[in-house]
Amino acid sequence: MASVIPAAGTLPWRRRDGRLEVALVHRPKYDDWSWAKGKLDRGEHPCVAAARETFEETGLVVRLGVPLPSAEYPVLDSTGGPATKRVHYWAARVTGGTGELEHEIDEVAWVDVRTAHDRLDYARDREQLLALVRAERAGELRTWPLALVRHAKARPRGKWAADDRLRPLDAVGLAQSRTVAAALGAYGVTRVVSSSSVRCVATVEPYAVSRGLRVRARDALSEEGFAASSAGAVTQLERLLDKGDPAALCSHGPVLPTLLTLLAERVGPTPERGRAAADRLEAAASSAMGKGEVLVCHLVGRGADARIVDVERIDT
């Protein structure tokens, strides 16, 4: 059986003079036009690789949006044997960077959809372009991310005699917190809210520190605060929906199902994408998110009009 080589990339997009444009890259080694992409590093999640490879090839910092269709095609592995390259793609918006070309690319071209369709050298790359256009027409392209995070692995309750709210992460949890930071970075999170319990704050603090953000610790998101009243946790979620900023909320296993169930009520009407999003939310609510797991909701609108168009689950 041929080995699978995992890779990831993005379709950076923008609107210029009322027209949708996407960024293509030219590789002089192959003299072809395609999307910015590259192979995953060992242990790297595809979403992290997608943002990293885009920066390395284009010099542009991007915030991932909705997932797009993946691509599979035959290649040769490092030994010259047959392999399959599997590339995961996301729509992406540019949030920074100089645009200075960094890696194996000699030109980045922003072009309209028709030009992109004609210039792409591989038919398989047109599938992502078509999906991006469909998302734009459905009003599901200009999204913002809301990431729900279950705290990373902590020291066992039975081996901790002090206040449970002070229980710290263990070595595995500390490693998970770094993976959480990488994932939140790929989605460009700018607001971080957490249970005031140490294990939750420590899960998202590495990301906040790396971006110069403040972790907004809330007792209402702790197990103890939620047991006293679930209303406070719901209020914290609603505040994030009202703001509509790229955000992360970190809490506990007993708290998150209530929030996930409320979010499931906000899934948009698109049949295929909406049904899959609802299924992922319901599964996460019923079977519990894993420790250190990140669930990313892609939303359009804010406040009462906020609607979820897609959901991703990221294990750390």
TrEMBL record:
Instruction: Give the keywords, sorted.
Output: Hydrolase
Q: Does the keyword Hydrolase apply?
A: yes
A Pfam cross-reference name: NUDIX
Membrane spanning segments where? none
Q: Which GO terms describe its molecular function?
A: hydrolase activity
Which PROSITE patterns would you find in this protein's record?
NUDIX (PS51462), NUDIX_BOX (PS00893)
Entry annotated with the keyword Methyltransferase = no
Which InterPro entries did the record assign?
A: His_Pase_superF_clade-1, His_PPase_superfam, NUDIX_hydrolase-like_dom_sf, NUDIX_hydrolase_CS, NUDIX_hydrolase_dom, Nudix_hydrolase_domain
Q: Where is the Nudix hydrolase domain?
A: 3-133
SMART domains recorded for this chain? PGAM
Q: What is this protein called?
A: NUDIX hydrolase
Q: Which organism is it from?
A: Terrabacter aeriphilus
